[in-house]
Structures are given as structure tokens and as C-alpha cells.
Amino acid sequence: MLHCSFCRKSEAQVARLVAGPNVYICDECVVIAMRLMRERPSLLKRLWRVVKDLFRNSRMAECSRGL
What we know:
Elements: E1 17-19, E2 24-26, H1 27-39, H2 41-65
Antiparallel strand pairs: 1-2
């Protein structure tokens, strides 16, 4: 079962789940991220680092499995 990479809610618990390369974000986390971008730009930089790390780690896992 798919789940949000940020809040860990399953696809059954959210209205929408957006897929990236082995990373998913739910509609609720998108709203939080948008609010952070608007209200707290410094937190956006931290959030972006988390997203990049998730992407990098998922790519590293693919490479280690030979995908």
C-alpha cells in the first residue's frame, strides 16, 4: 500500500497522493508545504533539503538493487 513519505498516511487516508520517483506526498502535506513557502521561507529551505534527501536515498536504493 502506498503512503505519504512525509506524514506516513496511507492512500486510503488522504484525498490525493502525488507520486514522485519512489516518493509520495499527500494533499494535506502539500497544503502545509504551501503555507510554509508563504509564511516561513527559511523552513521551506529545510523542507526542500528533506525532499532532496528522500529523492537521493530512493535513487541510491534503486542503484544498490541494480534497478
